Amino acid sequence: xxxxxxxxxxxxxxxxxxxxxxxxxxxxxxxxxxxxxxxxxxxxxxxxxxxxxxxxxxxxxxxxxxxxxxxxxxxxxxxxxxxxxxxxxxxxxxxxxxxxxxxxxxxxxxxxxxxxxxxxxxxxxxxxxxxxxxxxxxxxxxxxxxxxxxxxxxxxxxxxxxxxxxxxxxxxxxxxxxxxxxxxxxxxxxxxxxxxxxxxxxxxxxxxxxxxxxxxxxxxxxxxxxxxxxxxxxxxxxxxxxxxxxxxxxxxxxxxxxxxxxxxxxxxxxxxxx
Amino acid sequence: xxxxxxxxxxxxxxxxxxxxxxxxxxxxxxxxxxxxxxxxxxxxxxxxxxxxxxxxxxxxxxxxxxxxxxxxxxxxxxxxxxxxxxxxxxxxxxxxxxxxxxxxxxxxxxxxxxxxxxxxxxxxxxxxxxxxxxxxxxxxxxxxxxxxxxxxxxxxxxxxxxxxxxxxxxxxxxxxxxxxxxxxxxxxxxxxxxxxxxxxxxxxxxxxxxxxxxxxxxxxxxxxxxxxxxxxxxxxxxxxxxxxxxxxxxxxxxxxxxxxxxxxxxxxxxxxxxxxxxxxxxxxxxxxxxxxxxxxx
Amino acid sequence: xxxxxxxxxxxxxxxxxxxxxxxxxxxxxxxxxxxxxxxxxxxxxxxxxxxxxxxxxxxxxxxxxxxxxxxxxxxxxxxxxxxxxxxxxxxxxxxxxxxxxxxxxxxxxxxxxxxxxxxxxxxxxxxxxxxxxxxxxxxxxxxxxxxxxxxxxxxxxxxxxxxxxxxxxxxxxxxxxxxxxxxxxxxxxxxxxxxxxxxxxxxxxxxxxxxxxxxxxxxxxxxxxxxxxxxxxxxxxxxxxxxxxxxxxxxxxxxxxxxxxxxxxxxxxxxxxxxxxxxxxxxxxxxxxxxxxxxxxxxxxxxxxxxxxxxxxxxxxxxxxxxxxxxxxxxxxxxxxxxxxxxxxxxxxxxxxxxxxxxxxxxxxxxxxxxxxxxxxxxxxxxxxxxxxxxxxx
Lengths: 274, 297, 394
Hints:
Chain B is mostly helical.
């Protein structure tokens, strides 16, 4: 076959592409077990101390080798992230879904405007939204804290949920809803018995995406977080700016494992539905 | 109640929450930011309530006829941000195009697995993905050690805190935004079209230029817009990998807000970023009709 | 209300309809009155499409009525307006004399079999069929009994727990039918019910739908673009074009006595000629076609000089092999001879340039099959077999 050299070349490129995606992450994984305290890039031996240190377990490390002076600070950041992500996900899933339903199933004059407005927070650079919200909250005289972070996250997370649910709704033929109405079901019953079961995977997918993005957001949170409301990404950003110590590898791995678990569950659920 | 009016109530109910959220936490903040951008900076932070257009003059200067406040540093930063964002787009495109082709030709089950693998890193925390490259590029990092290992230690490039490092970091973080739209348009490409092209006497290169490229143009453009926008306004990657040497507009805005405490100037910079992004988006929407077609994965 | 009062068709045509229609039909009631129904749609380009242009139509209780027409004729819009999915711009639809304008679809005692079937993918067959009963709050036991009956009626007993996607196209359609019928609607609306089935299944289902309608005694209103389907199944056919009902009548009547050129051309194979009346004596008229052909026909209402369209069905033309019964003869040249199984379609060109298709039964070894293209042939017809329609104003 004369296409063989070209496809071999493509295959090599593809494998290289995957390697590019994963090798940097794999490096963190390897170094997170390196026992070398002085030069973290030089492999010395295998240790679980970095993980133990993060989790607050006793280690042989000197205090000065750690960033995470107390596991409590770390746990507070984790807790902040979870609180923000949970509330922001709940609110934005409800708002995004309701709006997607309105846009997909109703014809009204400002429909195009709403469509455009809803996509805007998502495609706008984070920093613009972040400082706009900062000025807004400050001029309102609000104290910055978890509540401002949640409000800020809801703005762009609603857009993500809106897009995911809209896609699902677009894939759902309106004739199912018409059939339900034809068989005597009121609009509310039709929604509960036909529309909702049909778009449920979309809503779940949107909520999962919202949760992950909320957990991940650094830039917007950076501007609208208060003194005590640092989230996990903010916490990590703070320590990275101070310099790199081996402990960060273990922390990164734990976080990665969590994200991948959530994402893999979501992607697996989606592939199973189709 | 007639069916029509009950539908109207349902619509109002569905739209109210989004309207409140968008108005209260999006449009009003943007409006306040726009207002701030034409106010005068206060002496110790804060603002003076007087009209002061020179915040823009500081960046755009000559074109606005405000030579006195004009500081070429800021115009330079803006241009550098545009340039690095463009380079990032090109790097992502070159990396992703062949890869997307490769994935589209894989057999069913393998294709799904690879797509899964390509999407997965996107869900990893952004800060961790940036950190992974810090680990590679830092002066004592993996790259240097690799050069040492093959005996070229003296030639090891010191990339950290250069424009190169910023582009690498941005490209790595934004790869999925390029890959997915590209893949979507390449996947739709019917292989019979290329066969028809070669049947009609076109060489592989002609086939690529005349068939493949035009048909995948929407994916290329969509991916480019999706990479360009966050690359242009980014501040995490330049802050961690560019340091003080590679200031981009994102860092400059951050600095104005948190260090220099010149909020009106920061707001003006943000308005400029927003304006440039809107122009890019409108150009894209005008060409392809739909803004919401350009959706992040 | 008696049919006679509402039915605008002239007496002459009504006799034949009674002869063809089912016995119960003659004394049936009018179920649905449609008067002056109009509906326009805006096109994306900013134009306007008139989907329904002043439709008047009555649907009788217990009849099998078909809306027949080419795509875009408005038939589906009319069906959706009856179901309640489209609002009318003007005009009214009334059930038993009660206007339906403000009644939402879910309060109308009609059920629809959708073209796509619209089976709920997340529900099993039994729950699909039981959906209407569930939302109406029918007690569990009765609901299960009726679902079982409905599935037995369409021959799907035993598939209750299957999901729609595990069924074949034909089975899905039966589920859609059962799901609609189980609610005992006053009127069953079927939107191109057979279009997704393959040819053999479609023919079998035509018969089955008709017999099903007899058994359940529910009014069926079917939309189709397939004239054969309409002829086979219907008690009455409403032929639609350009948002208007062109003709309503029994299949035989529509086939034999179409009111205009469009209906004549849409139903069955047809030779359509434009002609002028040259002579009339009693109920015999002589016509001259634009191609110079002289034809004889029966009509009692034309005067010389009238412009007319002439319909001569291919089966009314016989090849004169010397044994045919007497009739009027025409001469021409055999242009093509196409074998289509039971029949042979012969295309004959007359001296003046008119082209006629004649139908010859195919019997192995007979003379027609030995006819050679280019040969001179004589065909005969009976004047009673020629249908003359007044031309629409040019």
